[in-house]
Design a protein that fits this description.
The protein is an alpha/beta fold. The protein is built from 14 helices and 15 strands. Strands 1, 2, 3, 4, 5, 6, 7, 8 and 9 form a nine-stranded mixed sheet that branches. Helix 9 links the parallel strand 13 and strand 14. Helix 5 runs parallel beside helix 6. The longest helix is centred in the C-terminal third of the chain and has 19 residues. The model has no long low-confidence stretch (mean pLDDT 94). Bound molecules: adenosine-5'-triphosphate (ATP) and magnesium ion. Magnesium ion (MG) binds next to loops.
Length: 393
């Protein structure tokens, strides 16, 4: 019976000094995922692999499901542990496992052996040869093909023997926490949760900010964003969500600035506040769900105008994605259903009938001078009175 999992990761970009950081982070992320599963597990890091061993009853599907959301894993191999390393016993367990996994179909195979126990009575080539012969003798449909085997049969001799034949594709990416931390501007829409997921996949830890405008936006709209943050946290790990009350600033802009520039000016203030909070929380960059050309506020000119207020880099992982491509990811990560719930958004409440699509930075900055009297004070208040909610799936 499968009692263990061998976790393989791709080694690209993790040579040298980074390697330990990567491996330790992956081991920690794996432990966090397993804490959500029924059962007790031992997680060990050794020789460029991570071994998970179930110390109690557990649910196979649940464990694989959780590990499939753990970035940094290339493959998950369910392993049978053989306590007694006597070669005949290992072969017998291996054949039982193969019959269970492969049924009685015909297949070609090749044996791969690895020995970390160098005192073992056989060398790796001997193990391969002898085990291959044993398999052919005991499984009628099995044929050797050393060049293009359908099944890779693996035997590892450690303090115990490990045998495995199947490998489940992992999510890839880098373990969260190995690529710094960034502030995600998280709205209730489809795009920004996907943007956060994509950056988390590259190992970036996520902190998030949401701008709401009560009473124009409801408690339900806010809850929807909390729910989205939680769904993203299933991949990204714990997320701290900063909820900023944007009503006063929005009303003030509405009173003082040309209405066709409202969206752009509002977005510039969102970016400024997000960058400020990012600076206070060790984030090195911002993330948005912007996609070029999608709406008036995402033309190239609008992006330039909003970008101009930030000193930190702004990452926009879906910038060149079609809406449908973003939706496909949203469906895959299970945020889509929540994103399309029809609650009002603070940007749409005050939106002009004909917003500028090619804002002129000089004009925008001139309009913003109408805000000089109170904006600093409002900015300060919005930041200091923000609510911080920690979410974790
Ligand atoms: P999304 O689907 O992510 O809401 P969108 O297509 O609705 O995007 P916009 O409303 O123009 O596009 O927003 C562009 C980006 O600005 C969003 O992806 C998000 O990163 C950020 N943003 C917009 N509104 C808010 C908000 N209320 N709070 C936090 N971030 C926001
Ligand atoms: Mg939106």
């Amino acid at each position: 019976m499968v009692k263990a999992f061998l976790i393989k990761y791709s080694e690209i970009g993790i040579k040298g000094k980074n390697r330990y950081m990567f491996e330790d982070a992956l081991r920690d992320r794996v432990k966090e995922k397993l804490e959500k599963c029924e059962g007790e597990f031992l997680v060990e890091r050794e020789n460029g692999r991570i071994y998970v061993e179930a110390k109690s009853e557990y649910d196979f599907e649940e464990v694989v499901g959780q590990l499939s959301k753990c970035f940094g894993i290339a493959h998950i191999c369910p392993v049978v542990l053989v306590e007694d390393k006597t070669f005949e016993i290992v072969c017998k367990e291996l054949v039982d496992h193969m019959k269970e996994e492969l049924g009685d179909r015909e297949f070609t195979f090749k044996v791969f052996a690895k020995r970390s126990d160098k005192n073992y009575v056989m060398t790796s080539p001997e193990i391969c040869r002898e085990a291959g012969a044993y398999i052919i003798d005991h499984i009628p449909g099995a044929k050797v093909d050393v060049h293009h085997p359908e099944v890779s049969v693996n035997i590892e001799i450690r303090h115990r023997a490990y045998v495995y034949v199947s490998s489940i594709k992992g999510p890839g990416g880098m373990p969260v926490g190995t690529s710094g931390k960034a502030m995600l501007l998280l709205s209730g829409g489809i795009d920004s949760p996907v943007a956060g997921y994509m950056m988390a996949k590259r190992g970036v830890r996520i902190e998030a900010v949401y701008f709401h405008a009560p009473p124009y936006t409801s408690e339900r709209a806010k809850q929807k964003v909390v729910d989205l943050a939680e769904l993203v946290s299933d991949y990204a790990g714990e997320i701290r969500l900063h909820v900023v009350n944007f009503t006063d600033i929005q009303m003030y802009i509405y009173d003082k600035c040309p209405h066709d520039e409202l969206t752009i000016i509002m977005r510039r203030y969102m970016m400024k506040i997000a960058e400020h909070i990012a600076g206070e929380t060790d984030c090195m960059s911002l993330i948005t769900g912007e996609s070029v050309g999608q709406v008036a506020s995402q033309t190239m000119q609008s992006l330039v105008a909003t970008n101009a207020v930030c000193r930190m880099p702004v990452f926009r992982p879906v910038i060149a994605f079609d809406k449908q491509d973003i939706i496909d990811i949203a469906e895959k990560i299970n945020t889509f259903e929540t994103s399309i719930l029809p609650y009002e958004d603070c940007c749409t409440t005050f939106v002009a009938k004909h917003p500028v699509t090619k804002p002129d930075l000089y004009k925008i900055e001139k309009s913003e001078r109408n805000l000089e009297e109170k904006i600093d004070e409002m900015f300060e208040k919005a930041v200091s009175e923000r609510e911080i909610i920690s979410v974790k799936m």
